[in-house]
Amino acid sequence: MDFANVASQLNAGTILPEGIVVLTFLGVLIVDLILGRNSSRWIGYLAIAGLLASIVALYFEWDNANPLFFAGAFNGDNLSIVFRGIVALSAAVTILMSIRYVEQSGTALAEFIAILLTATLGGMFLSGASELVMIFVSLETLSISSYLLTGYTKRDPRSNEAALKYLLIGAASTAVFLYGVSLLYGLSGGQTELNAIANGIASANLSQSLGIVIALVFAIAGIGFKISAAPFHQWTPDVYEGAPTPVIAFLSVGSKAAGFALAIRLLTTVFPLVAEEWKFVFTALAVLSMVLGNVVALAQTSMKRMLAYSSIAQAGFVMIGLIADTQAGYASMIFYLLVYLFMNLCGFTCVILFSLRTGTDQIAEYSGLYQKDPLLTLGLSISLLSLGGIPPLAGFFGKIYLFWAGWQAGLYWLVLLGLITSVVSIYYYIRVVKMMVVKEPQEMSNSVKNYPAISWNLPGFRPLQVGLITTLIATSIAGILSNPLFTLANNSVTDIPTLQAKTVDSTQVSAISTEQAEGL
């Protein structure tokens, strides 16, 4: 076999965006080695430029006629392109908010960005992985990098504790997930590619066997940990409170998006014959996540812990689209994750700014903030109201799309529960907004009274300003000008094979019904 045939079978152009991220990673390390600490102000911009170039490369990969890489181990279809774009964009915004935060913590910025790029690479590969070995390697690349990022501020005992808890629980969930996929390997007759596994299980008539059910439950346990769904959420509040804030900003968007991409590809490809079973399990997870996340968030006094439980609740909302198992359901998931990226990262940018200027993240310390910092107050208010689903912000349209897709699929009581818990969430979001805006000057907290003079010219604050304004504008207009995002979300799910089969089946059923009606 000559080199040309090997290259054509490899189809390396499919992973060009990931290749750009690898080159960016190497560039960051080389620049840091050559210039040392003098390079800190440039490394962040180099990494952001590389991630934006990767997103541009993803744009040119759209509707790729031959999306399979490495004999089907990686699928670069439109679905994976959107999720890879979400992961890369969340990493770019995270770097904007990291530069000042990492420098103030006294740790090295180059190593932080290098580990973050490694996590980004794992998330991007996980979003398109369609083979068990590729899935596991990508998952571990993302997970191990996340553990390192969580404990990156070594002098902070809370960061060390969060990293240890995350590592122990994450290792356990990985072991459970690995056992589940190893069962799939055995039951399919030694296949590792997802379509081959599905064909092997179907040909052996094992769709209702106990082994498939166990594999399904164990796989869902691993996915549930990655998307921080209850009851696999135990790590989330402690990690959110103890880890560096930019890290949890990335975990809340990039890592969660990669987990949902894995869920869609694994469930629709390998487990279509037990769809009722996995829908039942995810319904239980969605109910627990929406109820527990929103109710426990009411009692939180730390902004980061409140956002942790908010993240658990948001995962419950997104699962409604997964349970619907329709084209509209999957499109609604993608649309919500796109707008969630902007509104959640906008909120975390504001939390970072406030903690840099005051040294605290307690909700009570935000009292009267409008008097001292109108821009930060506006950004945090818009992001929290959007997370709560207040019109006409992006979060409102995202939830409407999810609930509409669920209602069309017959998930009436689940949609009603989502509406009720959304109303509950509005209470704790508006409580923070009221505290910042409505409080009288004499009711200011001590942190706000001693608030430093606002200066964006300090080292590292300009990227924070750019990130805040960009995500604020996107959160404000993404809902009103949502047609491009709707179109993108709908077009990305049209090539899911199981959905195409359902569309064909429903078309045939409707045609047969019409013929019968005409005969009568």
Automatic annotation (TrEMBL):
Its EC number is 7.1.1.-. It comes from the Bacteria. It is an enzyme of class 7 (translocase). GO terms for molecular function: NADH dehydrogenase (ubiquinone) activity; oxidoreductase activity, acting on NAD(P)H, quinone or similar compound as acceptor; quinone binding. The keyword Chaperone does not apply. InterPro entries: NADH-Q_OxRdtase_suN/2, ND/Mrp_TM, Ndh2_N. Residues 129-424 form the NADH:quinone oxidoreductase/Mrp antiporter transmembrane domain. It is found in: Cellular thylakoid membrane; Endomembrane system; Membrane. Keywords: Membrane, NAD, NADP, Oxidoreductase, Plastoquinone, Quinone, Thylakoid, Translocase, Transmembrane, Transmembrane helix, Transport. Residues 12-99 form the NAD(P)H-quinone oxidoreductase subunit 2 N-terminal domain. It catalyses: a plastoquinone + NADPH + (n+1) H(+)(in) = a plastoquinol + NADP(+) + n H(+)(out); a plastoquinone + NADH + (n+1) H(+)(in) = a plastoquinol + NAD(+) + n H(+)(out). The chain crosses the membrane at residues 15-35, 42-61, 81-102, 109-126, 164-186, 206-227, 280-299, 306-324, 330-354, 375-404, 410-430. One of its GO terms (biological process) is ATP synthesis coupled electron transport. It is a multi-pass membrane protein. The keyword Transmembrane helix applies. GO terms for cellular component: endomembrane system; plasma membrane-derived thylakoid membrane. NDH-1 can be composed of about 15 different subunits; different subcomplexes with different compositions have been identified which probably have different functions. Belongs to the complex I subunit 2 family. NDH-1 shuttles electrons from NAD(P)H, via FMN and iron-sulfur (Fe-S) centers, to quinones in the respiratory chain. The immediate electron acceptor for the enzyme in this species is believed to be plastoquinone. Couples the redox reaction to proton translocation (for every two electrons transferred, four hydrogen ions are translocated across the cytoplasmic membrane), and thus conserves the redox energy in a proton gradient. NCBIfam families: NDH_I_N, PRK02504.1. This is NAD(P)H-quinone oxidoreductase subunit 2. It comes from Fischerella thermalis JSC-11. The gene is ndhB.
